[in-house]
Design brief:
disordered C terminus, 362 residues, globular, alpha/beta, five-stranded mixed sheet
Length: 362
């Protein structure tokens, strides 16, 4: 089933960054004919729009598809066209909604519409059926998604973690489309000890009772359980990485950004930020007030605020020098995720002292 969206008259253009390591070929009017029509090599082409929700959901699946056939890039192309930017290409091939996928034989300008599922298995099978090529899957890292059954459900839900859980079924096409996004989300929150990204196979004998108890009637069903509660809150938002991160940040009080890093508010404490602003330029006068405020906070970075108050009182150039040092360490890379979080948190706090707040974006 195609999830085509009728082209809206007005659309917000929010293009996503293109990874230099992407296996998906970006197609534009200047290279489309040579790559797709005259190469003698077949191609699967997605016509998308940056603002399209279904296109965003398809993106990680399509990228994985391209990577599994990258070894045969001399025999088949997996490409995409921003048909909102290059409308002429969309009109040329009768594109009326997004995303639209078409199969080109590499010899003519008469494509065949792709009408299969939008999951990796269906897309891979299409290319295999057309070319005889088989996908090659690289070794994957262990999943960060926690699978729950009837027994482990009682051990995890309602305890000390905020739990976002997807109830799925093995045959469900939408579940297959969600799977890579869910994996990415779990990786994004892998260093958050109080957040759990989980999944329940609602049709497995070992977890079917839990799905029934939760009133699951369709797939995927996504529910949120605040820490300490067994009362579910239904998730009714979008199904992109950005949507899920925004939801969890709001509900669980986290500060994650797309890709798993911390946003510009990570590590900062509003109550202490107020004191920083109050004594801007005269931090020595605010030291005692900062100490008093920090004593009543359980946040581990409260003491770091006090340390900065003390350091900047003794050395006016401390904040700038320390921020430069931390930023240098982050740029060098090769750091454990937990260390990256720590350095980012400290950098965010230092920026409060020099009024260098970075815009917080997902």
């Amino acid at each position: 089933m195609l999830f085509n969206l009728i082209l809206p008259a007005l659309a917000l253009l929010t293009p996503s960054p293109v990874s230099a390591s992407s296996s998906v070929i970006d197609l534009i009017p200047a290279n489309f004919d040579s790559v797709v029509l005259k190469s003698g090599k077949p191609a699967l082409v997605e016509f998308f729009a940056p603002w399209c929700g279904h296109c965003k959901s398809l993106a990680p699946i399509y990228e994985e598809l391209a990577s599994t056939f990258a070894y045969a890039s001399d025999k088949v192309t997996v490409g995409k066209v921003d048909a909102d930017d290059h409308k002429e290409l969309g009109r040329r091939f009768g594109v009326q909604g997004f995303p639209t996928l078409k199969w080109f034989d590499g010899k003519s300008d008469k494509p065949e519409d792709y009408s299969g599922g939008r999951d990796l298995e269906s897309l891979s099978k299409w290319i295999t059926d057309k070319t005889g090529l088989k996908p090659k899957v690289k070794g994957k890292m262990p999943s960060s998604v926690v699978m729950l059954d009837d027994n482990s459900w009682k051990e995890k839900v309602g305890k000390g973690q905020d739990v976002l859980v997807a109830f799925t079924a093995p045959w469900c096409g939408h579940c297959k489309s969600l799977a890579p996004i869910w994996e990415t989300l779990a990786n994004d929150f892998s260093t958050e000890p109080t957040v759990l990204i989980a999944k329940v196979d609602a049709e497995a004998p070992s977890s079917k009772r839990t799905a029934e108890d939760q009133g699951v009637k369709s797939y995927p069903t996504i529910k949120y359980f605040p820490k300490g509660s067994t009362e579910a809150q239904p998730y009714e938002g979008g199904r992109t990485e950005k949507d899920f991160i925004a939801f969890l940040n709001e509900k669980a009080g986290t500060h994650r950004a797309i890709g798993g890093g911390l946003d510009a508010t990570g590590g900062t404490i509003e109550a202490l930020d107020t004191i920083v602003q109050k004594f801007s330029g005269a931090y020595g006068e605010g030291l005692e007030e900062a100490k008093k405020a920090a004593q009543g906070l359980k946040d581990k970075y409260a003491s770091y605020y006090v340390k900065v108050f003390e350091k900047v009182n003794a050395n006016k150039g401390y904040v700038e020098k320390e921020l430069k040092r931390l930023e240098g360490m982050l740029k060098k890379g090769n750091l454990a995720p937990e260390k990256v979080d720590d350095l980012t948190s400290r950098s965010n706090i230092l920026r409060r002292f020099i009024g260098k707040d970075e815009k917080s974006e997902l």
